[in-house]
Design brief:
The protein is mainly β. It has no helices and ten strands. The protein has two domains: about 1-40, no CATH class; about 40-125, no CATH class. The termini are far apart.
């Protein structure tokens, strides 16, 4: 039995793979099965700012940014994600979190740290054009 695999990119944000499994029976090639999977990807564009202190931003419990920064992360379409953050800084200082893309995850937060100098929060979203969940 021989196995062949072939992976191609059809669009800039599409990952596609196609596997063909063929068997040799009595000197002839027979197609046993074909599997074609396609995972569409989108980009999450984020930026953060903290005037004085530290800010950590997580996506599905994985640190993606610290302090004042910007980044782009690839997301699978149709999957649910959780964004959460922790902030520690000088009381009275401000911080902000902006997610500008994809549409389902768009988020803007600007806060001032209270007397304790700490802040946290979260929201979740489904990266699908049909459903969005934001708390």
């Amino acid at each position: 039995m021989s196995f062949r695999s072939h992976a191609t990119t059809h669009q800039p944000l599409t990952r596609s793979s196609h596997w063909l499994i063929a068997g040799l029976v009595a000197g002839q090639h027979h197609l046993l099965c074909t599997y074609n999977s396609q995972t569409r990807m989108t980009k999450m564009v984020t930026s953060t700012f903290i005037a004085s202190g530290s800010l950590m931003l997580y996506l599905d419990n994985e640190l993606i940014m610290q302090n004042s920064d910007s980044t782009t992360v690839e997301l699978e379409e149709g999957k649910e994600y959780i964004v959460h953050w922790f902030v520690k800084g000088t009381p009275g200082s401000s911080y902000s979190i902006t997610i500008s893309s994809p549409r389902e995850a768009q988020y803007q937060l600007t806060r001032v740290l209270d007397r304790g100098g700490r802040g946290f929060g979260f929201f979740n979203f489904n990266n699908s054009k049909y459903e969005s969940i934001v708390n």
